[in-house]
Specification:
7 strands; 202 residues; alpha/beta
């Protein structure tokens, strides 16, 4: 049992978020995420992870030789402690509809977002989510201000509140019109509307 697990015990009587104190488990999950993007065998990249949480994905990327930065809210002491333990840099910011991401003073080869929930307006549990107009603004902002030439944007979506897939026919059509390659819960986009050459998930 790690010191982090002792400070944030798990079980029915403890907050659900404490599950992120299981460092070996989450490192394993994020090794697979990084390998899905072939980050274990590519040249060093500059990577931005939106909604980085405890920072496990970026820690793995850093161990594979990449330069990393996270962006998230600052709501949980557990995440602060884990980011410090892993040595992952983070910018504190909210992602709101029709609002540009903060000026990070740098650009990136890869922008990722795993288990996305920022599209749920006001943290809505009633199913209210971003429209295609909101997604258009967000994608254009990342493409025009955040991504380097040849860069990629990976979006990995949670199921909807009712358990259904994020990709309704309308949203699938929209993302495909933006050049996205869609695989299960994930969409991979390039810096323009031309589809990226391939979606290399192993």
């Amino acid at each position: 049992v790690t010191d982090l697990e002792r400070r944030y015990p798990r079980g029915a009587n403890f907050p659900k978020i404490n599950r992120f104190a299981d460092v070996p488990y989450w490192i394993g999950i994020n090794i697979e995420r990084a390998q899905d993007l072939w980050l274990d065998r590519t040249r060093p990249l500059r990577i931005l992870d939106l909604g980085c949480g405890a920072g496990y994905f970026l820690y793995v990327c850093k161990r594979f030789g990449h330069d990393v930065l996270g962006l998230d809210l600052d709501d949980h002491q557990l995440f602060r402690d884990t980011l410090a333990l892993l040595g992952v840099r983070r910018v504190i910011s909210r992602i709101d509809p029709n609002t540009s991401l903060p000026d990070l003073q740098e650009t990136f080869d890869l922008v990722t977002a795993h288990r996305i929930c920022f599209q749920r307006i006001g943290g809505s549990k009633t199913g209210e989510e971003w429209s295609t107009t909101h997604w258009k603004f967000f994608i254009d902002d990342v493409r025009n201000r955040i991504l380097n030439p040849g860069g990629r944007l990976l979006l990995d979506f949670n199921p909807r509140v009712d358990g259904s897939s994020f990709f309704t026919p309308e949203l699938r059509s929209f993302f495909e019109s933006e050049g996205a390659r869609i695989r299960r819960s994930k969409a991979l986009l390039g810096v323009n509307r031309s589809p990226v050459p391939e979606f290399r998930l192993r």
